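Comment thread on ticket #2218

A.B. wrote:
> Attaching the input chain for the structure job we discussed in standup.
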Amino acid sequence: MVETKEGEAVIEVVARYEAQGAPCPRCGCFSARVHQWHRQRKRDAKVWGKVVWLLVWKRRFRCPSCHKAFIEPDPACGRYRRTTGRLRREAAVGAEDASVRAVARWQGVSEGLVQRSWVEAHLAPVCQGAPRFMGMDGFCVARPGRMWTGLWDLEERAPLALVPGERQRDVQPALEGLAHPEAVQAVVIDLAEPYRQAVQMALPQAAVVADKFHVIALAGRALREVRRGRRGRGNVAALLDRGVERLRPREREQLAEALSHQPELARAWALKEWLRRLYHRSSPIVAARDLDAWREAAHTSDLAPFQRLAGTVGRWREEILNYWRFPLTNAFVEGKHNRVKVLKRRAYGYRNQTTFTLRILNLVHTD
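C.D. wrote:
> Ran it. Output below, let me know if you need it in another format.
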């Protein structure tokens, strides 16, 4: 039964459900005996820009078995809901690209309803599979120093967990809480001691792989320290940071001329390129030999930044060489975290931790 009344800005629909009866929620016995009628007023999604109100006549049935009264189910809105599922879905979709306030104004509902609708629609559980290869990296949530850690399945390209904080005591419970921690074979991290300790404690069977891009980035940082920001003729600073195989012949000549007048900078650049070329070695034995030779050369180079880097490489030698056992990187993780940072900037930050987590999960599930 449906009756409709349309005005200039409002459409009212009077209706009731077509079902002849409903099962008793207590004993399961089917009942068609109407005990009482109730009229409920509920909001539906707009039609032609007009607000739609549903005046639903709901029935209370009397169970013939247990003699208890119960109200019929409401599949269009849900139990104890005053809005239809269609309205909540439209609000959730609108909140994907617009602000909660803008969607609330357009739909003529409260901001709280739009927010709850979005959470209801996008409450996606994290991956509960058995990852073999994981990536772990931190990203900044708010300055100064408020960091989160993302755990990712590198094979399935899916999130495993989002952890507020980047300390061992923050990350270790998330690793221990994996569905099948014994299945993890390798975890890729940057050169962060808390991450290494967390993996060693929670996943002792897994190999820790130092992300090669972070290792090479440390060499580039040491080179810039040796350069001390000195300006040269032309675009020498950019040529120093770029890989030698990516330089054009004219750029190589320009770089060689600049380095010929600065022997200290030439030694630093050679050390940086040596470390980069090391990752092209096909054999782990050759890679280990070259890495030890590079450390010796860096120690005896009289360049303080590279001497410090040689000490760091020595402390992370096993994790760096694990790359030849598991040739994995965190490039995928870095790309995802870059999108998270863009999401955070668009919203000018998030005050609600749960909402921020759900936004991230929705972002990665809709790629």
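A.B. wrote:
> Thanks. Noting for the ticket: The chain has 14 helices and twelve strands.
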